[in-house]
Every structure is written in structure tokens, then in C-alpha cells.
Structures
1.
Amino acid sequence: EPEVTQTPSHQVTQMGQEVILRCVPISNHLYFYWYRQILGQKVEFLVSFYNNEISEKSEIFDDQFSVERPDGSNFTLKIRSTKLEDSAMYFCAVMAQKNTEAFFGQGTRLTVV
Amino acid sequence: QKEVEQNSGPLSVPEGAIASLNCTYSDRVSQSFFWYRQYSGKSPELIMSIYSNGDKEDGRFTAQLNKASQYVSLLIRDSQPSDSATYLCAVNNGQGRRALTFGSGTRLQVQP
């Protein structure tokens, strides 16, 4: 059983629309992350989330992005106004303790048209 | 800029051979090192972690770490066609909450 599941598996949206990507950890994890991977490129860190707040974010994670864990279960990534260059695979990852192994969800393929 | 470098490949080996994958990193304070396997269109799958200098073996996989040389490698013994994938090296500097910095990956092709 995977440590984390993501929905949807594929999302197509029009440029300028808002999207919400969801991540549901299976067991108790303390650290949550979003990464993205543009087709053919490396996996890039977006943001880390611990104790119900953002711990760190990369330069990619600008004002168009936000994260929250509203109900203590789902961990969401919102992109307010999507751009063509937001098209990528978005991965949620979880870690039980700091500096230990990170497990990735199956990803959401976001296509902005 | 903290970097993790890998040869993009493809690295082609015959079935049954040993595949050797290499990775260097620039951040000397890095503490944790991971190898992920990624099939095309899929998410990274953790196959090995290593935290101290030396070798760590798990089945057909051996990870090797040399912090003085800032070098980590992955050996795959008795390579199988199903091992054909992109192998990602990832590093955690242990500071702050940032999780992993990834290399661009090495594509491995195991020829039957």
C-alpha cells in the first residue's frame, strides 16, 4: 500500500484557471512536500510543510501557489491562476521524521492549455 | 547553488551484468543520500538510502558513499530488463525543512 495517494491523476485546465491538487497520507507523517517535474527535466522542490505551516519554499513557489492541510488529513496545493509553464507532473511526498526517507505519491499530471 | 550531478546516459548493460551509477554533490553538509528509480511517466520510487560512509547492500543493490569525495554510487548486480529506468540521486542537507535536491537522473537500459 502506498504511503500517500494523490488526486486527480490527470488534470487539464485552461490558462488562468485555479487548480487544486490533493494528497492524502496513509499513515502518520510529520513532513509534507510538493515537488514538480516538467517533462524531461529534473524533480524540483516547491515547498515543505511541517506543524501546519510552511517550513521552506523554493523560488518557484511564488504568490500564485499556496498549500494547506485544512482537516489534518488532505494536503493540498493550489495554483491560483495557471500558466502554460505550470504544465508538469506534481508530486506530493511525505517523510516520517526529519532527514529520513521520503515517499512519493503517484503524481498528478497537470496540463494547462 | 547546491547541485547534484549525474551522467544522463543512457547507460547500456547486458542482462546479468553489473550496472554502476554515479552521483556527485556540491553541498559538503549533506547528510542523507537516496537513490530513486523512476519509470517513464511514473513517480520516483525509493530503492536505497545511505547515511554514513561505506557500503550498504540490499538484495541486488549496493549503495556506496564517500563524503570526503562528495560521491555516492549505486551498483545493481545481475541487471534485469525490468531494471531499465531512470535512476535519480537525491541529497538532503539536513538543515531546515527542505527535503531533497535531485540530480537529473541516469537512464539505464538493460539489454536482454
2.
Amino acid sequence: GDSVTQMEGPVTLSEEAFLTINCTYTATGYPSLFWYVQYPGEGLQLLLKATKADDKGSNKGFEATYRKETTSFHLEKGSVQVSDSAVYFCALYSGGYQKVTFGTGTKLQVIP
Amino acid sequence: DVKVTQSSRYLVKRTGEKVFLECVQDMDHENMFWYRQDPGLGLRLIYFSYDVKMKEKGDIPEGYSVSREKKERFSLILESASTNQTSMYLCASSRGQGAVEQYFGPGTRLTVT
């Protein structure tokens, strides 16, 4: 079955540091890939997505590139802010009735 | 803006009680979902619905049931709550087919004592 593996957290960074959160996946066919973010006390919200190989999703300074050859979708940001502190979930959709498979989440804490 | 609302942010129930969690979305979405979120396990799908009165089991349906009598409302029912159902419950909705965004409610933190 489909699965998503994320790097374990928590990740603690200083403000303006470079961020990478690793995500790899296993799926049949050609899935679409997502990053969702959950701020404290809130539900998840879509951060970015990519629907085919070599696509790059980007939003709010975050980027992720769909790498079919390495089955990866790593999240990056060049300079994190305190307001980026949240839990980040990698997810995939491989067709059918909207069933999305989520990773376990990676907590990011950015300190001033 | 899409809005998904959940009936309670926090809920405390006793073992054996019947528990109803309500979710309402205001964007006429076809699909609705119930997840539970636990530390180290991420989000796990309990049930989803792609149309009124239609439901499909997710990965962990045991101990739960659902009801969707109206398009905008999707209810999760714990027939006899147990302590291992203490968790954060998230409702989500999405439109149509394909790789579309799911919109989440703020969650209900359920504690079963």
C-alpha cells in the first residue's frame, strides 16, 4: 500500500537558518504529493503541492520538488522565521476516492 | 473562504458513553473525512464520504461509525467510548475528484476517562 516517511522531529532552528524536512514515499503509479502545515491550535492547511515528476511546488518561501527517481519530496526554505514554527505533514494522493496518505508529521521550532 | 467547523474544541466523556462529533462545511464539497491524530502516528483515516448517505471505511474504522444525511454535515459516532479513543479528531472536506486540497477543521480534543 501507499506510505509516506518523514524525518523525525522535533527540528529546532535559529531564525534565518536554512530548513530541509525530508520526505520519501512508496506508491503505485504516479501519485500527487503535498505538504500540509498545522499551526498550534489549528487544523491542517495546504502549503504546496506537485502533481507530476519534476514539478516544483512553492508557497510562502517554501519549496519542494517531486523527484520520481528518488521517490522524494523534500521541503525547503532558505530563511525560516519564528512564525514558521508548526508541524509539517508530507502526504500523497494516488487516485480513487480522494484517499490521501499522510506522514507522521515533523515539528519545527524556530527560535529568535 | 472555505470553512470547516467542528462542534467542540474539547470534550471529556466517560468510558461506555455514546459520543457524537459533528462537522459542517460551507463550500458544497462532495467529499468529507474523519481522521484521528496521535503523536508519532500522524493522521489516520477513520471514515470518508464522497456523497450524501455514502460512506467508506478508512484505515482504522473499528469502534466508529459515521452518518451523512446532508451534504454539508458529517458526523462521527463512537458507539461505546473507550480510553484508547482518547485523541485529536480532525474533520476535512474536499471537492470533486483528483489531487485536490483538503480543508480541515480546527479539531476536537476528546478525552475518555
3.
Amino acid sequence: GNSVTQMEGPVTLSEEAFLTINCTYTATGYPSLFWYVQYPGEGLQLLLKATKADDKGSNKGFEATYRKETTSFHLEKGSVQVSDSAVYFCALRTPDGGATNKLIFGTGTLLAVQP
Amino acid sequence: DGGITQSPKYLFRKEGQNVTLSCEQNLNHDAMYWYRQDPGQGLRLIYYSQIVNDFQKGDIAEGYSVSREKKESFPLTVTSAQKNPTAFYLCASQDQAGTVTQYFGPGTRLLVL
């Protein structure tokens, strides 16, 4: 079946460090891929997305490239800030012809950035 | 401002009680979704609706019910049959054309007394 696997957290970094959060997926066909961010006590916000192989999504200094050959969509940021502390979710939308457009989420990775 | 609102922010349920969580959107989206979030388990789909007066069960629908009488509203009822209702509940809506992006509300935390 379709699934998303994220690296387990928490990930603890110092301010200005480089961030990588790994995400791999299993899906038939060509899913769309997403990263969402959840700040404490809040809902999820879309961070970035990619809809086809080799697409790069980017927003607020975060980037992720859709790699079909490795079925991956790793999240990166060159220099993290304390304000980036949050839970990050990788998700895919199954290419089922648009019948449901459901999202499948990973378990989330907690990022804690220390000053 | 367009967006999704959920109320209340916190909700307390007594044993044997049904409670209803509100979700309203003014984004003119056709599709709406309810998720349950438990620590370390990510989000699990409860129910979804792609159009008014129609909805389908998600992966964990037992003990929950929904209605979709208006495009902008998709309330979720947690019934007494749901034996472990303590969780964070998230509502989302989605544009079905163009980018097909899902947008989330701020969530409701349900606690059992």
C-alpha cells in the first residue's frame, strides 16, 4: 500500500546549523509530495510541495526535491532559526485519478532549535 | 480573510456523552476532511466529504459521525461509542482543481473527564 516514512525525532540543532529531515515513500504511480509544519498547539501549515519527479519545492528557506529513483523527498534548510522549532510532516497524495485526493502522512519529526 | 475555523479550542467530554466539533471554511472548497492526531502517530483520516450531502468513511470512522448540509460546514460528532476519544482533531479543506492543496484549521483538543 501507499505509505510515508520519516526519520524519528527529536532533531536538536543549534541556531544556524544545517537541517535535513529524511522522508521516503511507497506508492504506485506518481504521487504528489508535501511538507507540512505544525507549531505547538496549532494546525498544520503547508510548507512546500512537488507534483512530479525532479521538481523542487521551496519556501521560507526550506527546500525538498522529488526524487523518484530513490522515492525520497528530504527536507533541507541551510541555516535554521529558533523560530523553526516545530513538528514537520511529510505527506503524499495518491494518484488515484482524483477520486478522493486523500493525503497520507508520516508520523512527524520534531525539530528543536537551540539559541 | 479566507480560512478554516474550528471551535471550540478545547472540549471536555463526560462518559457516555456525544460531543460535536465545529468546522467552517470560507475558501469555497468542495472537499473537507477530519483527521485525528495522537502523539507519535501522525494524522489519521476519520471522514471526508467531496461534495455537499455526501461523505465517506476514512481509516478510523468507528465511533464518529459527520454531516455535510452546507458547503462551508462539516461538523464532526464524537459519539459515546468512541472509547478513546482523547486526541487533537484537525479539520481540512481542499480545492479540487488547480493545485489541489489541503488547508488545515487550528484544531480542537478533546479531553475526557
